[in-house]
Amino acid sequence: MALVRIPEQKIILCGEYGVGKSSLFRRFLNNTFVPTSNRQSTLGLDHFDRSYTVGDKEIKLQLWDTGGMERVASITSSYYKFAEAAILVFSLDNATTFHSLSQHMLEIVTYAENAKIYLCGNKSDLDVGTPQVTDGDMEAFCEQCHSLISATYKTSCKTGEGVDEMFRDIATQLVTSNRSRFELQALEQHGFKIEAGEEGQDPSCIC
User: Fold this and answer.
1) Does pLDDT of 187 surpass 90?
2) Which pLDDT tens digit goes with each residue over 12-22?
């Protein structure tokens, strides 16, 4: 059976500067890690597409990164526009970056109200004894967000641990949550036309 190709899904990275958003982007781009001392300072939005196979469907994730623009200017609403998912990133060894997530959450629900939201604690490789942000803190944040967080992850961009698993899980969730729309698109691609009212109840019926 041929794979059903799904339109690209825009995913945005959100969070404070220095939490590892660009490192997550590099892992997604070419599975590499560049130490801070070797990085060149660049500014500007960037994005990259990667395809994943989920069952009989091929979904293309288009990941967007701020490229450090938050250091010099506020991120405009266009960054959030048409996003299907948003990943809230914080550093597990820096509680300040975790406590700032509420503001980023507000921006997501304001400018990308239909996006699925994910929570990512980065730098899980750091051995700092007692972590500044615990699993309990993450659970409490999810509860405060009234179930708006679809899933939580821990990653290490330095070792690569958990990064690919996170993106594959998000791809699977996006396929599942949009299954009806994708199947309708597949039918239309094969020459079937769905007339208004065929999908469900007669529009004239209000009972």
Assistant:
1) no
2) 999 999 999 99
**Most distant CA atoms of the chain, gap in Å:** 65
In the chain, what are the domain boundaries?
4-189
Tell whether pTM > 0.90. no
Q: What is the CATH code for 4-189?
A: 3.40.50.300
Q: 152-183 burial string, b = 16+ CB within 10 Å, else e?
A: bbbbbbbeeebbeebbebbbebbbeebeeebe
Give CA–CA dist 156/110, Å, rounded. Answer: 29
Q: Is 79 left (phi over 0), alpha (psi -120 to 50) or beta?
A: alpha
Number of alpha carbons in the 13 Å side-chain half-sphere of residue 166: 30
Pairing of strands 46-54, 57-65: antiparallel
Integer Cα distance of 28 and 20 in angstroms: 12
On whether the CB atoms of residues 112 and 12 are closer than 8 A, the answer is yes
Helices (H) and strands (E) in the chain, counts: 6, 6
Please return the burial class of 129, using the count of CB atoms within 10 Å of its CB with bins 0-12, 13-18 and 19+. Answer: exposed
